[in-house]
Amino acid sequence: MQLRRSTSSDKHLMNNFAAGNYQCLREIPVSRGVNFRKRFIEFYKAYYSANRMKLVVLGRESLQELET
User: Is residue 5 a contact partner of residue 15, using CB atoms and an 8 Å limit?
Assistant: First the structure.
């Protein structure tokens, strides 16, 4: 997430989103005429699906052990 923020446009809403506080979830979008809920649902429908997800496993076990 931090990498995406650092490489995105300064004007993108992602750069105003820190930890989900009232200001970044309500006040800033409203001041810019953005319906945050609507945009979030659009994002969810477009990008949030299992075929787009990645899983990273970190452990002391060998790859063979982790695969079983």
Answer: yes
Q: Answer whether 13's CB lies under 8 Å from 28's CB.
A: yes
Nearest to 30 by CA among 5, 6, 13: 13
Query: Which DSSP string corresponds to the chain?
Result: -HHHHHHS-TTSGGGG-SS--HIIIIIHHHHTT--HHHHHHHHHHHH-SGGG-------SS-HHHHH-
pTM score, whole prediction: 0.46
For residue 49, give both structure tokens. 């699906």
31 pLDDT band (50/70/90 cuts)?
very high
- Distance in angstroms (rounded) separating the CA atoms of residues 40 and 46: 10
Domain ranges of the chain: 2-67
